[in-house]
Amino acid sequence: YMLSGSHPLNGTRFDLSFAINGDFSQGTAGWLTELPVIGGENLGTLTNNQVNGQYAGTFIERYYNDDARLQEAAGKRAIYQAVSGMPAGMYALEAAAFARRANIGDATRTAGMTTFYLNGEETDVTGTQLDYVSFYDVMCWDGNLEFGLRTEEGSTLNWLGLADVHLYYYGIPEATLDT
Predict the structure, then answer these.
(1) CA atoms in the 13 A half-sphere facing the CB of 154
(2) pTM, whole model, 2 decimals?
(3) In terms of Cα–Cα distance, which of 148, 151, 99, 101 is closest to 125?
(4) CA gap 102, 132 in Å, rounded
(5) Per-residue model confidence as pLDDT tens digits over 6-55
(6) I need a surface site. Which of 12, 19, 81, 135 has the fewest CB within 10 A?
(7) Which residues are paired to 173 by β-bridges?
């Protein structure tokens, strides 16, 4: 990465989004799914037209084709990326995400069925359209970051999406350097 020997100053941040294909300009390059894609499913990119102020642009989607596959996917990483060799310090991650039921009959949306995560931090994805979720002040000492969407036990949400992913590096906080 271009950060060798560089450090953010006075609370500024380095935008590392170029390193993770966060705009999906290179398709799905760098993005993975834990459960292999089978017939009728998808891990690919689509373009969203702006409606009612929601995100407009390219996003990555993961589609599961039936409830049996959703049960198999429970607890697994639906869309994720693992990067190594990152500098130690504090990170932030922002993205637009959605999780919804599509084309398998009716279901009630339940919070907690899909999570957005960065290393050990996680939050529920509650939007059925591309709504922003974020993490700030996440420390990473070993240079390994993993982030993305994970399905949870009992999920009925078979269409997941992630867009406009931004990874920021803030360096090592001064309070940490003093100890």
Answers:
(1) 6
(2) 0.85
(3) 99
(4) 21
(5) 556 566 788 888 889 999 999 999 999 999 999 889 999 988 776 666 67
(6) 12
(7) none
